[in-house]
Specification:
Blueprint (H helix, E strand, L loop, with lengths): L3 H20 L16 E10 L4 E9 L2 E12 L9 E7 L2 E8 L4 H10 L8 E5 L11 E3 L7 E5 L3 E11 L3 H12 L7 E7 L8 E8 L7 H14 L12 H22 L1 E3 L2 H21 L7 H16 L5 E3 L10 E4 L2 E4 L10 H5 L5 H23 L10 H28 L9 H22 L5 H17 L1
Antiparallel strand pairs: 1-2, 2-3, 3-5, 4-5, 6-10, 7-8, 8-9, 9-11, 10-11, 12-13, 14-15
Helix pairs in contact: 3-5, 4-9, 4-10, 5-10, 6-7, 6-11, 7-11, 7-12, 9-10, 9-11, 11-12
């Protein structure tokens, strides 16, 4: 017999596809926002916390994309969240309307969510504490306001819950890497505490929906620190300390930290020379990503031949007698993924590039791929600071062009200075000296710049000149070499 509660959930399920279709395009984490309202199909809807408000877990497809996940609060009457977090409302016969909303925006629900871990598991969604872990019960959960492809909820300075907006089949790559670093014990990291996952028998199969990690106490992330130093350098506020700003020592230490993470991952999960078929697959992947970038960003077309020549020049290095070593890596390393702590720099967010499949994220890669991504981030930080000083997006014309040109040269010099310091630190920390593998680093840097161009074209078109300028610089170096 269908209960009243079951009937209510079924009514929500019927309405949810249409409500999500109108709400999703405004979400930062939704990849299909440019295509308008998607066709949504809810594949799993589970009530994981009863009451008023209740908490629902929804896993759904959205057009060609999927699966996605939303944590949905459900209450009778107005929702205790900002209006932009409201997904929609359903009329309720004989009572107040039901309001559905983004649950991560309500601290009460997030507090109750932690209490769900460790309870007896029933149904398709399970909340599992990892062995030896302890969660901070009763602590309010506050969602981060940072732009991210996932949503993070902080529980004071005790724990961080990451809601995976694109659920991962099987075990999350991030859990695998955090577990390896925890076993190594040689580098500071965010210890994994718990996970939310669906069962293999659920309508969506076995998916990792979320991860609870130890909270990393820090003085802020590398992006804020680097852009602040670059901005001070451009405006002259830091010139008494160092001609190109006082961040080079931090860049050197960040290189050390990156090398130590790579060493720990190699020790725990192994490393080996890339095999012939793997090398071919790596080159093919670079070609496929370039082809996708050319389709998505027509402005990349003038550089296509030089980028293909770079891939061809890389072939001998990858498939020759001394192929590079491959191992598990971070996969999406940039200044926003590192925190300054009392113990030094700590790398976070080991899930890899969210637009790639879990299989690709797990694939062993040359460690210099992470290095190249961080080198791109220094360039981004410098030109972001330049835009703040200019008061306009990069590449947009404005008054006082001679002075702007001087600032632009100084921004480039700041980036080069800190990139060199980072490479020196990486080599000193035991990693392969990036300066001795220029072809490999250049290829991965160009690949990252193409990836950035696609991202900016879809999300921040005014910022597209930054990766395009990097592609232009890299292809000029290629033409000089070939």
């Amino acid at each position: 017999m269908t209960t009243l509660v079951d009937a209510e959930l079924e009514r929500v399920r019927v309405a949810l596809d249409g409500l999500l279709a109108g709400w999703l395009p405004g979400r930062r984490w939704f990849a299909g926002k440019d295509a308008g309202a998607p066709l949504v199909t809810t594949r799993l809807l589970e009530r994981v916390l009863p009451g008023d408000p209740a908490l629902l877990v929804a896993v759904f497809d959205a057009g060609a994309d999927g699966p996605y996940q939303a944590l949905i609060g459900m209450c009778r009457g107005p929702a205790p969240v900002p209006s932009e977090a409201v997904i929609g409302r359903l009329s309720a016969p004989g009572g107040p309307a039901l309001t559905l909303y983004e649950a991560t925006q309500e601290p009460e629900l997030m507090t109750r969510l932690l209490e769900r871990f460790g309870a007896d598991g029933h149904g398709p969604v399970r909340f599992e504490c990892l062995p030896g872990s302890e969660l901070p019960l009763g602590v309010p959960g506050v969602a981060s306001t940072a732009e991210q492809s996932n949503t993070s909820v902080a529980f004071a300075d005790r724990a961080m819950f990451k809601v995976l907006r694109r659920p991962v089949p099987g075990t999350s790559p991030e859990l695998e890497l955090l577990g390896a670093l925890q076993r190594a014990g040689s580098v500071p990291s965010a210890a994994p505490l718990a996970q939310v996952h669906t069962t293999a028998e659920s309508p969506v199969g076995a998916l990792t929906l979320g991860i609870v990690q130890e909270f990393v106490r820090s003085g802020g992330d590398g992006w804020a620190a680097a852009t602040g130093q670059a901005r001070a350098c451009l405006t002259g506020g830091d010139r008494t300390e160092a001609p190109l700003g006082g961040f080079a020592e931090e860049s050197y230490r960040l290189g050390l930290a990156t090398a130590r993470v790579h060493t720990a991952l190699a020790e725990q999960l192994g490393s080996r020379p890339i095999g012939g078929p793997e090398g071919t697959a790596l080159l093919d992947l670079l070609g496929e990503r370039l082809a996708e970038g050319l389709r998505a960003v027509p402005d990349l077309a003038p550089y296509a031949d030089a980028l293909r020549a770079l891939h061809e020049g890389l072939r001998e290095s990858v498939l020759g007698d001394r192929p590079p070593l491959v191992q598990r890596i971070h996969g999406d390393l940039h200044l926003g993924q590192v925190l300054r702590t009392e113990q030094g720099w700590v790398l976070i967010d080991f899930e890899g590039e969210p637009g790639h499949s879990p299989e690709e994220r797990r694939r062993p890669q040359p460690a210099l791929r992470d290095v190249a991504a961080m080198l791109r981030s220094f360039d981004y930080a410098a030109h972001h600071a330049l835009s703040e000083v200019l008061g306009r997006p990069p590449g947009e014309p404005g008054p006082d062009e001679p002075r702007a040109a001087g600032w632009a040269r100084r921004a480039t010099a700041w980036a080069v200075h800190n990139r060199q310091a980072y490479c020196a630190g990486y080599a000193a920390g035991g990693g392969q000296d990036p300066r001795r593998a220029p072809l490999l680093v250049r290829a991965f840097e160009a690949d990252k710049a193409v990836y950035e161009a696609v991202y900016e074209a879809h999300n921040r078109p005014a910022w597209l000149p930054i990766p395009l300028a990097a592609v232009r610089r890299l292809t000029e170096e290629i033409r000089q070499q070939y």
